[in-house]
Structure formats: structure tokens, C-alpha cells
Amino acid sequence: MTAIETMIKASHLIDMDDIIREGHPTLRAVAEEVTFPLSDENILLGEKMMQFLKHSQDPVMAEKLGLRGGVGLAAPQIDVSRRIIAILVPNPEDEEGNPPKQAYAFQEVMYNPKIVAHSVQEAAVEGGEGCLSVDREVPGYVVRHARVTVEYFDKTGQKHKIKLKGFNAIVVQHEIDHINGIMFYDRIDPQHPLAIKEGLLIIE
């Protein structure tokens, strides 16, 4: 049974065993575009990827399934070399610990996403980046664009063009890197991993 046949079985919940780790050749391949109208297989795969992210952020499900928390997942990470990414960025609680009015700052399954414009200004997440396919800490600033314009298709084949900034922009860039065979640590300066270049926006 191929990876995708396993993933889309009705009974299957994606877990950490399905996620391939660094060193696997699929993570370094440039993924293939999907064609429209989307196959049921590709629609189901996107839904399963989003389900994984929701489970990973739910303390009960995460413990039950042994999941690491994630805000993004790309199809190559489950050994399916297709240009499909799922993004689920939760909104934080307020200062009193109340849940946010909207649960998610960004929630989307994106097919054939691509960056069509970006800012000159660069940005990096303060504590560095992690990845479900990397089981080790890699310290250093992962330098990305502070703002991006992204084109993508949704599962109905509708084309979208959106502008993203801040953490949402970082997450989408991280996942688009995956479908291009790029790992986050490729963007860390090996000589000076913690150097802050002039003008670099640090995102807390």
C-alpha cells in the first residue's frame, strides 16, 4: 500500500509514525503540482492533514496519539510528493486566560501554493523554528520574508491571492519550502546562526 493509500483510509489518523524525518529523500525533492478538478484522493489528503494539525493542538488527542504540536504540515512530510500544505495557526488566549473570539488566526489547506511577491524586509521567529520532520533542536534565526503575497487554490479549485505578515507569513513560507525540498535550517547562517542583521524583524 502506498503512503497516500494509507493516509486516506477512513479509519486512519495521521500520527508521528507517518511523518518522515530528515534524511529521507522525499523531503529534498521538489513536489509535483496537483491538477484540477482535484481527485477525491487529494481532497481527502488535505482534510486528513488538517485533522492531524487539529489533533496535535488538542491536549487530549495529542496525548492519546503521541503527537507533537504543529501549526503546519506539507504533503512531502507524510511521504507524498505533492504540492499540498495545511496551515492551522491558533489565536492566543487573552491576558486573563480567556479563549480567543476566533480560535484560529489562519486555517487553510492550500493546493499548489506559491509566493508571488514579498517584502524586502526580512523576519525571523525569536526562538527559532522547529519542524515535525526534525527531531532535534537547531538553534539560530531562520531568515525569511517579513511579508508575502501567496497564490493558491482551495479544494473546490477556486484561486486565491492573499497577503500575509508576521507569524502567519513565516508558517506558510516554512511549508512552501517543504514542497520545494528546502528544510528550515538551510536558511540559518551556519557561521553566525544568532547574528541579527540590520533591519531584521524579530517575531515573538
Automatic annotation (TrEMBL):
Binds 1 Fe(2+) ion. GO terms for molecular function: peptide deformylase activity. CDD domains: Pep_deformylase. Pfam families: Pep_deformylase. InterPro entries: Peptide_deformylase (IPR023635), Peptide_deformylase_sf (IPR036821). Its cofactor is Fe(2+). It comes from the Bacteria. Its EC number is 3.5.1.88. This is Peptide deformylase. The lineage of its organism: Bacteria, Bacillati, Bacillota, Bacilli, Lactobacillales. The gene is def.
